[in-house]
Write a structure and sequence with these properties.
heterodimer, A: mainly beta, Immunoglobulin-like, 7-stranded mixed β-sheet, globular, B: Immunoglobulin-like
């Protein structure tokens, strides 16, 4: 079964540094998402992306965050100047289209640790 | 705003027994979709089951079934013949076209399975 792939599985970064989290969505999917889960807390929506532009973003997704689909397969989340509170599990997800009955398929996540 | 509430932070079940996890949600929409995701200790997000709000019939996937009460805005998950591999965090999630198709998650319920 096709999978959403995320790299790296664990990223350790110094506070203030830039970090890029990578995702390869399922190949025929058109909608892409990033979610965040701070340890012990619920999963929170960050951003959705469709047709090479942001569809929706949450209030968490401020100016230090950006997303990009640099080629036909990768979908990246960049955090420009990391803060301690950015430490979390980051999940990428994709779905075939925007119909709500289509489930979002999640990657295994990237654990981001900010020191 | 759409909210999802899971009132049970933790539940325990004996192996081979049945357990029900509760979920309630708040929405003014008539068109929406509900999901249960499982998150084992590895922290992957695995889709367990989904329910379309327009369907009266409760969804079933093998040992997993839901009790969807639309008027009460309740969406509980029943796990029959519980297995050790069912031990995980379970998240209830809501998704609606009117709100950009992002998933809104509950706080989660930790399920422990005793042998």
């Amino acid at each position: 079964e096709p999978e959403v792939t995320q790299t790296p599985s664990h990223q350790v970064t110094q506070m203030g540094q830039e970090v890029i989290l990578r995702c390869v969505p399922i190949s025929n999917h058109l909608y892409f998402y990033w979610y965040r889960q701070i340890l012990g807390q619920k999963v929170e929506f960050l951003v959705s992306f469709y047709n090479n532009e942001i569809s929706e973003k949450s209030e968490i997704f401020d100016d230090q965050f950006s997303v990009e689909r640099p080629d036909g397969s990768n979908f990246t989340l960049k955090i420009r100047s990391t803060k301690l509170e950015d430490s979390a599990m980051y999940f990428c997800a994709s779905s075939p289209d925007k119909l709500s009955n289509q489930p979002q398929h999640f990657g295994d996540g990237t654990r981001l640790s900010i020191l | 705003a759409q909210t999802v509430t899971q009132s049970q932070p933790e539940m325990s079940v004996q192996e081979a027994e049945t357990v029900t996890l509760s979920c309630t949600y708040d929405t003014s929409e008539s068109d929406y979709y509900l999901f249960w995701y499982k998150q084992p200790p590895s922290r992957q997000m695995i889709l367990v089951i989904r329910q379309e709000a327009y369907k009266q019939q409760n969804a079933t996937e093998n040992r997993f079934s839901v009790n969807f009460q639309k008027a009460a805005k309740s969406f509980s998950l029943k796990i029959s013949d519980s297995q050790l591999g069912d031990a995980a965090m379970y998240f209830c999630a809501y998704r609606a076209p009117e709100y950009g198709n992002k998933l809104v998650f509950g706080a989660g319920t930790i399920l422990r399975v005793k042998s």
